[in-house]
Design a protein that fits this description.
single chain; 153 residues; mainly alpha; 7 helices; elongated; WH-like_DNA-bd_sf; DNA binding; sigma factor activity; Sigma-70 family RNA polymerase sigma factor
Amino acid sequence: MWVKERLKEYAKGKRQLEASRKLLSPDHPDQVHLAGMISDMAYAIKWMQSGRQPGIYRGVERRGMYREPFVLDKDLFPSLQEAEPVSPIRLTTEQRQAALEAIRAMSDRERDCYLLYATQGLSYAQIGSALGLSRYTVKEYVQRAKSKAQQAI
């Protein structure tokens, strides 16, 4: 595994820096630089060992970064597999741009919840169980997505 190899390399580099620092006199100007490099190496080693940023206990990575992402695929949306929509809607270039801007303004979760709600007709509870969210959270995401869509149009 490449992380274990990098950990060994970083640990070896840290030991070499510490040995170099011990060889210098305490008042040598490079002491400060070496101390900073050793501190940075220790920080990187902690990060690689734990898999998350050191010192962050309630950060975003704890809640969502390592959670398995919910990917929208064509199996969930059969209409995406069709060559043409059942009832094609003609959009002007401006309307198309506004729709794209509305979708881009949504967060990943808002977009996932909104698309499942609007295209599949799933309930908040069904979406919540599929995404691992509460019904109330899904409702909030859908409402935020709707308001962003209204603002863009």
